[in-house]
Amino acid sequence: MERVLYVDEIFLRHKTPPGHPESPERIRSLLTLLKKTKLPDFVSVRGAVLIDERDLELVHDREYIEYVKHLIEAGGGFLDPDTYVSAESWEPALAAAGTVAYAAKKAVEGEHYVSFVAVRPPGHHARRSEGRGFCIFNNVALAAEMLRRNGFRVAVVDIDVHWGDGTAYIFYDTDEVLYVSTHQDPNTLYPFEGFPHQKGKGRGEGFTVNVPLPPGTDDRGFLMAINEIVLPVLETYLPQVILVSAGWDTHWQDPLASLEVTINAQWEALNSIYAFAETISAPVVMALEGGYVNWVVAKSSLNALSVGKRPMFVEKERPQGVPLEEVMYYLDRVKEELRGYWPL
Question: Which of 70, 94, 157, 239 is the most buried (most CB within 10 A)?
C-alpha cells in the first residue's frame, strides 16, 4: 500500500507580514528539498484538494467563517495579534482544511496507510469562532469530525510544542475523539493552557490527555513521554484511525520554544505511533502544524513518510538537556491526574 505526501504550491499564496515565523518559506523549503531528493518507490506525491466552505461549519461557527472571508476580500488583516490573513489566503485556507480531510477519507477507504499532509496555514489553535496562533481553520479537527460522523473511532495525537487548544476544546465534551498532546509546560509557553487537570468534561471527561514537558526535555524525555503515556492511552482507546498534528517546533533550533528535540526523536516518536497503529490496522494521517526552522520542516516532513523503515535524514545528537528526573517528575504528575481514566 503506497504512502502519500500531499503538498502544493497553493500554500505559498497565504502571505504573512515580513519577519513572521509562519511564512511561505516553510512549504517552499519542502518543495525545494523534494526536487533534490529521490523518494523511495513506496512514496507518491499528490496536490491539494479544496473543501466546500459549507463543510467548515462542522467545526466552526458560520459567523466566524464569514468574518474571515470578508476580511480576506477586503485585502487582509489580523485575526489576532499573531494570526494574519492576506488578500490571497482564502483558497490556501480551504485547501489546508480540504487536503487533510481528503487524506483522512482516502486513508479509511484503504487507499494509503500512511500519509503526510504538508499544509499552511496550520490549524490546531483555531477554535470554533476564533482564529489564533497562526491558525485560521482547524484542519485536523475538521478531518476528525468528518470521520467521527461516519462512525469512526478517532484519536488525535498532537506532538507540536504548543498545546492545540482549538482541537482540544472542539472535542472537549465527547468520548468519540481522543485528544492526546505532548507540549512544553504551558507555564512557559503559548497558549498558556494544556495542564494535566484539563481532561475534558461530561462524556469527554478523561478523553483530553495533556502531557506538558519542561523546557530542555530533549530526545530522551520526549520519547519517554510517548512510550509511558501516549502509547498506553492509545492501546487502551483502540482508535480506528490516528490523526497526528505534526508540529516540528519541538526542535532544539526552533525560535519559539525550547524543548530541545532533534529530528531523530521526532521520527522515533512517529515511528512508535505507526508501529502501534500497524498492530490494530489503523491508518495514520499526519498534518503539518508548527515548526519554524525551514530545513527541519522539510526534512522531518519527508522523514515522516518512512516510519516503519529507515529515516531519510538523521541529525547529529545534541548534548543532553535537563536531568531525566525532571521529566519524570512532570510525567508522574500527569499519571496521577489521569489515575482512574487510563492504566498508566
Answer: 157
**How far apart are alpha carbons 286 and 301 in whole angstroms?**
9
Cα 243 to Cα 270: distance, rounded to the nearest angstrom = 11
The catalytic position among 60, 112, 125, 183 is 125
For 154-203, the pLDDT digits (tens) are: 999 999 999 999 999 999 999 999 999 999 999 999 999 999 999 999 99
Rounded to an integer, the average pLDDT of 125-145 is 98
Domains of the chain (ranges; CATH) run: 3-337 (3.40.800.20)
The whole-model pTM stands at: 0.98
> What residues pair up with 213 in beta bridges, in sequence order?
184
Mean pLDDT of 9-38: 98
The answer to whether 155 touches 240, Cβ cutoff 8 Å, is: no
Which residues neighbour 81 within 8 Å (Cβ) at sequence distance 6 or greater?
none
Q: 214 near 257, Cβ under 8 Å?
A: no
Closest to 210 measured CA to CA, from 240, 176, 186, 189: 186
